[in-house]
Design brief:
Distance between the termini: 23 Å
Shape: globular
Structural class: alpha/beta
Helix content: 40-55%
Strand content: 15-25%
Number of strands: 15
Number of domains: 2
Length: about 550
């Protein structure tokens, strides 16, 4: 159930909400006149009407070009961007990860500082490190040629030792370093720039280890057919991977890499791309590997013909919290189940999948917004950030709410924004509140705010003043949302221009509603009454299905 509210512009300088004559406090006539008098005085006194209109139009065109066409002004130091990977396979991994996890949380080739005599050298921790909320995902990427001795048992044993076992040892060492020395992690080869994102505390930190082992897919296809994805057989543990077939070994099958060390996910060329293209948000991907690990360690899986066999079960089943999960019926004799890849291939050919992909197209608008915010922050061009060192944590926290949304939830939010843009004239305010789909989700406040120059107010409002007004109005909306939904804990806001076409600007805001005093309650009620925010909103019943019906 969404809440939708329209606003109208008022006469002259009054920007009104529907059904009220009360002015927005932040834009009183006195304040506007004080600002606009400067721009008005740039026009020669005694100018004719046509000349004045021409000059005013040129002024507007210059301002439009400065804010929407010209490169934005750098307002604070540019932040060094992370490495893009040093080898072809590492660059592929970094590119896929950037599309899925986005740049603010993806850090290729992170290193630690290691003293060597009087100098300090950089030792690589992981080929890719993802940090998001309480989850850290470590990737080790190895591109090893599969041997061709003519003996498959020997070839597989050597490849496993070089591509999987060595990578797993690197990841276990990386985990130890991160837990013991969380402040000695760097993103540059000179160990001068620390990881620019705060790690979760030890009690909350969840580390996931992923080996990306290239080189075996082609031989796997030749030997077993199929996609070339390695089989998953949990009963194979540690050195069992290197046994010959005569002694119970199984080439191209991965189980538990170690009986004593933490679990390691092993992906190959095929399964890496499979997962990152089909679980292409951080919440979807992390949710999958967490539940996959729990499923394998539960003893309920006997064998999966490949990663796609697991993925086919995962996308088809929901648990009691309406989350995708490995839900299997109890076997009469407690025999672990075997999964074939046929379920996944049938899903790919289904009408449900085609309709899902079509419905999800709009959701990538949300990905673009996140990268746009993050890009301006990293480039030093964010509109209202000045003390960057002190605001980095807050900035990342706000964007984290954007990024934590699943693909389905991004579809909901993006569809709401698109609908609002298409149906809201450039002269009107539009506010929509999107409630959580499940516990833990934030409330979203989406705002379209008219640019003053579209309102026939008789005065040209400087762009910087407009942005300040819009940001303050958005903050007011967040407080009123808490008033309307007292149970809300996290309220996130997004604002842009009404009537926007191919250009515009965006604001984001966040209210931690866990901190809510009686005085804040009274202030919110005053703001609601003065601005007439969410007084008589429209309730819009919404139902969204991950797999839309025809």
């Amino acid at each position: 159930m969404c809440v939708d509210c329209w606003g109208d512009r008022g006469p002259g300088l009054d920007w009104q909400m529907a059904g009220t004559n009360r002015r927005l406090p932040s834009i009183s006539p006195v304040e506007f006149r004080g600002v606009d008098s400067q721009s008005r005085n740039t026009l020669p006194v005694g100018m004719g009407r046509k000349s004045r209109e021409k000059r005013e139009r040129k002024v507007r065109e210059v301002e439009f070009k400065r804010h929407y066409v010209d490169p934005p002004q750098v307002k604070y130091p540019v932040r060094l961007r992370a490495s893009i990977g040093s080898t072809g396979s590492e660059r592929l991994l970094a590119r896929l990860a950037k599309d899925t996890f986005l740049s603010l949380w993806s850090y290729p080739n992170v290193v630690r500082d290691e003293p060597q005599g009087k100098a300090v050298i950089a030792k690589e921790i992981a080929d890719l490190m993802i940090v998001f909320e309480d989850d850290i995902v470590l990737f080790s990427d190895k591109d090893c040629r599969f041997p061709s001795t003519g003996n498959l048992d020997i070839d597989w044993s050597r490849w496993f030792r070089n591509a999987v076992e060595k990578s797993a040892k690197q990841l276990w060492g990386a985990e130890r370093h991160i837990r013991q020395h969380p402040h000695r992690i760097f993103i540059d080869s000179k160990c001068k720039i620390q990881l620019p994102i705060q790690l979760p505390g030890q009690t909350r930190m969840r580390i996931h280890r992923v080996v990306v082992a290239h080189g075996a897919s082609q031989r796997c296809r030749e030997a077993l057919g199929g996609s070339g994805s390695l089989m998953i057989m949990p009963q194979i543990i540690g050195d069992d991977h290197k046994k010959t077939r005569a002694n119970g070994g199984a080439p191209f099958a991965i189980g538990r890499v170690s009986a004593t060390n933490p679990f390691v996910h092993v992906l190959d060329d095929t399964s890496l791309e499979l997962l990152l293209k089909n679980l292409d948000t951080v919440s979807d991907f992390v949710g999958y590997i967490r539940k996959k690990e729990a499923f394998i360690e539960s003893g309920r899986l006997g064998m999966a013909a490949g990663e796609e066999a697991l993925l086919g079960l995962y996308v088809a089943k929901l648990n009691g919290n309406d989350e995708h999960d490995f839900v299997v019926s109890a076997q009469a004799d407690d025999t672990p189940i075997a999964l074939s890849e046929s379920r996944w291939h049938e899903f790919l050919k289904s009408g449900e999948r085609r309709r899902q992909r079509e419905a999800d197209k709009v959701s990538y608008l949300w990905d673009g917004l996140i990268e746009q915010f993050a890009g301006h922050f990293m480039a030093g061009t964010s509109h209202h950030l000045s003390e960057v060192d002190s605001t980095h944590g807050d900035f990342e926290k706000v964007l984290r709410f954007f990024a934590r949304e699943s693909r389905l939830r991004r579809r909901v939010l993006s569809s709401a924004l698109v609908h609002m843009h298409r149906t809201t004239p450039a002269t009107r305010t539009r506010l929509r509140v999107v409630p959580p789909m499940r516990p833990g989700d934030p409330y979203w406040v989406l705002l379209l705010f008219p640019f003053a120059n579209n309102l026939n107010v008789g005065e040209r409002v400087p762009y910087e003043r407009y942005r300040a007004i819009r940001q303050e109005y958005l903050n007011c909306c967040l407080r009123v949302a808490k008033l309307k939904w007292p149970e809300a804990l996290d309220i996130v806001g997004f604002a842009t221009e009404s009537g926007r076409e191919s250009y515009g600007s965006e604001d984001a805001a966040y209210l931690d509603a866990r901190i809510w005093t009686d005085q804040m309650q009274r202030d919110a009620r005053t703001v609601q009454e003065k601005l007439q925010i969410l007084i008589t909103p429209n309730m819009i019943a919404t139902h969204i299905s991950e797999y839309p019906k025809p």
